[in-house]
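Hey team,

Filing this mostly as a record. A colleague (T.K.) asked me to run one chain through the structure pipeline before their review meeting, and I want the input and output archived in the tracker in case anyone asks later how it was produced. No errors, nothing strange. Just documentation.

Input sequence:
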Amino acid sequence: MADWFDGNEQEIDFTPQRRGSRPLLTLLSLVIIVGLLGTGIYSLVWFINRDLGLSPFMVANTGSAPAFSPNRIAYINPEGQVVTVAPDGRDPRILTQDDLDYIFPVWSPDGRYLAAIGSQESSRGVYLLQDAAAQTSAEVYASSAQGPIYLYWSPDGRQVSFLATQSRGGLGLFVAGVASGDAARLIMTGSPFYWDWAADSTRVLIHTGFAGEQARLGMLEVASQSFAEELGSPGFFQAPGISADGRFRAYAQADENGDSWLVVSSSDGETVVREPQAGLMAMSWHPANNQLAFISAARNNGRFFGPLRLLDVDGGETAVLTNETALAFFWSPDGRYLAVIHVGILNGNEIFAAEDARKRLGKPAPQRFEPPQLSLAIWDVAEMQLAQSLTFRPTERFFTQFLPFFDQYALSHRLWSPQSDALALPMMADDGRAQVMVVSVADGRQRVLGDGDMPFWSP
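Output structure:
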């Protein structure tokens, strides 16, 4: 087990001088929230609702492929630039120093590259980077009218899929062939839009809309842009999921009466599990086993936060991991732990007293953002016991943009270390600064890596 805490837990400051306000970035934040919310009543209450082939396009002016840099954390500094750093705070690199403001950096599956959304006065785009200081980013896509808001690499690392706003409203799913240099092409439209890549990188399991005639659920062929399989009318949930071995798909399905059911079906179309649900549902597969973690409200109130349950698909049994109200959860890469985020103090009176925080979760922040207190509980799933817990105050973007769609972000952006022994989190300091913090699973120790937001670990 790596030790990110060697007794020298000093704060490392390599933050450039802040520039002035960035109204376009503020507008982009609002676009992300409004775009993902989609339409219909549930859109108003959505939280209440391997080797990369190289081309001149991708690595222009960069020479040969970079060496793999394991155990790096990428984040955005206060200047809106992409930074990477080792988890012990050493070897910081400011990758970009340009006029773009970047958000949500995401590592390629092999850890050699990053993609990030960049914005400037006239447009927003998707940009590729290597983990090297002071480089020029490669533009994959840019538009003044259809700006990207979310990125997700294909498993083979040869394509970047992303959502972009549409000029007539709604969202479009685009795919760009970064290895081949193919231009980004529109695959499908819908709002909201969620998807999971199949392991062969040729298909995506998609869910668009919340429910009703405009909603779609099925396996989409990327090349032909046609459905290989449709899975009926979707129920009340967000992101669908494909199990690690590819045998099962998990989603919610509506019956003829409009009631929603949690469904797990096999790759040949057979329904393996069908359980009634209430409220919305958020789910995530174990990274290796056929075990599905999910949260759902106790009643039809348009919310998906609630107790965290574990469904053993092979055994057909469901167990409650914690009855505390969970807002989000994330599997460790080895599947041993689940990091669960709650409102308030775990096992204390404040967890249900923070109703104001729950009401604000996922909504555009007020002019002055006052972060609520959240609890992080790290559960040892094998032992069904709490391994670690702490409280923290999240950054505005983490609270209002990342957590409401955590089930989709869990497919693309990693908070966990590759060794499953630490997490990277964005936290608000007492003086109001956004800081990147690494938290040890073993003893809960914390290390500040620098001022910044949106930290994500390399594979």
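Quick notes for T.K.: The first strand starts at residue 73 and ends at 76. The longest helix spans residues 23-37.
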